[in-house]
TrEMBL record:
GO terms for cellular component: cytosol. GO terms for biological process: heme catabolic process. Its main location: cytoplasm. NADP(+) binds at residues 9-12, 39-41, 93. Zn(2+) binds at residues 275-276, 287. Its cofactor is Zn(2+). Belongs to the Gfo/Idh/MocA family. Biliverdin reductase subfamily. It comes from Megalops atlanticus. GO terms for molecular function: biliverdin reductase [NAD(P)H] activity; nucleotide binding; zinc ion binding. This is Biliverdin reductase A.
Length: 295
């Protein structure tokens, strides 16, 4: 069994505690047992689980695994601490707010012989799995993914990182990309932000990613993918699957802990994660260079 701590008790942290308390029967997630949670606030028991001080979690021989669920800005530091203490780490995306940091963290995991796993529930939704099937075999001519949502809370980093799930969709659907432009419009007073990034696929087809956030904007993804044979202008709808998204991710992490995931899959995942963070870095540079600064 792998003694596990959940680090950070917010929306994601609470779901992690719930899933660890009742893992899917006969799945790899059953091999983790929750020993406590870490929080920067003194908290009461959560779902019957007790708080553990960070230093105690790092030093305890009963704990082999940390699941980092804090806001993005703090991920790097927690991952580093737990890896250095010889623990396996699962982190909610994105693992860091720069490509360079992610590369270092992965090197550290390798050096320590520990699993480093970045959660990507956006790839696990039934709708996305259907979309991926629908796109398979078609030849893209041009496409747009436009996300809207409420204002980004502080501590979640630049939009290309807090929105890495959208970028990950594009890369998972259409392969590795090259950034051709990045720009930003921002009205701080109104808490409004809009980032537009453009890419070329390896086949030199143009993709546009728009991430737009502000008060009153609902969480939504609009697509427009033009293929040689047809155009897709809405996401497919597929029936919800019985296993929750974070639980599916926990099973995948559990399989990694048990050495059940083939090395080629681990390599491909690592490559995709690093590629997406590298694209996010580049978009940030372009958006923040003087020639592109917004309103
Ligand atoms: N929510 C979701 O559906 C998804 C989230 N994620 C990722 O999970 C991570 C965390 O996101 P999420 O859980 O939504 O973020 P939250 O804002 O809910 O929580 C982030 C952190 O803030 C602290 N916190 C939570 N509530 C309070 C409060 N009332 N007062 C003060 N501090 C508080 C907690 O840390 P502490 O206990 O140390 O104070 C918590 O870990 C991010 O990396 C995100 O990208 C990924 C996929 C889906
Ligand atoms: C209702 C308020 C609500 C909040 C505060 C919320 C926060 C939230 N949802 C996220 C992703 C996500 N959130 C969900 C799904 C959910 N997440 C949920 O909290 C709920 C109730 C669902 C319901 C289906 C999915 C599937 C993702 C993956 C990212 C994506 O597909 O874009 C993320 C990670 C950053 C991001 O990708 O934007 C945050 C911070 N999601 C919400 O829906």
């Amino acid at each position: 069994m792998f003694g596990t701590v959940v680090v950070g008790v917010g929306t994601a942290g609470r779901v992690r505690i719930r899933d660890l308390l009742s893992p899917l029967p006969s799945s790899a997630a059953e091999k983790m047992t929750i020993k406590g949670f870490v929080s920067r606030r003194p908290l009461e028991e959560q779902q019957g689980v007790k708080q553990i001080a960070l230093e105690e979690a790092l030093g305890s021989e009963d704990i082999q695994v940390a699941i980092v669920c804090t806001e993005n800005m703090s991920h790097e530091e927690y991952i580093r601490k737990f890896l250095e203490a010889g623990k396996h780490v699962c982190v909610e995306y994105p693992m860091s707010l720069s490509y360079a940091a992610a590369k270092e963290l992965w090197e550290l995991a390798e050096q320590k012989g520990k699993v480093l796993h970045e959660e990507h529930i956006e790839l696990l939704t039934a709708d996305y799995k259907q979309l991926k099937k629908d796109v398979a075999g078609k030849s893209l001519q041009e496409g747009t993914l436009h996300f809207t949502g409420g204002p980004v809370p502080s501590g979640f980093g630049f939009m290309a990182f807090s929105g890495i799930a959208r970028l990950t969709w594009l890369v998972d659907l259409f392969g590795e990309l090259t950034v051709t432009s990045g720009s930003m419009v921002e009205d701080r007073e109104k808490q409004y932000m809009k980032m537009t990034a453009q890419f070329l696929t390896q086949e030199q087809r143009q993709l546009t990613w728009i991430e737009e956030r502000g008060p009153g904007l609902g969480r939504m993804k609009n697509i427009n993918f033009r293929f040689d044979s047809c155009t897709m202008d809405r996401l497919p709808e597929a029936p919800r699957e019985p296993v929750g998204l974070f639980m599916q991710d926990l099973n995948l992490f559990g399989q990694k802990l048990l050495g059940q995931v083939p090395p080629e899959q681990l390599q491909a995942e690592r490559r995709r994660v690093l590629h997406c963070l590298q694209l996010a870095d580049r978009i940030q540079q372009l958006c923040q260079s003087p020639a592109h600064s917004g309103v």
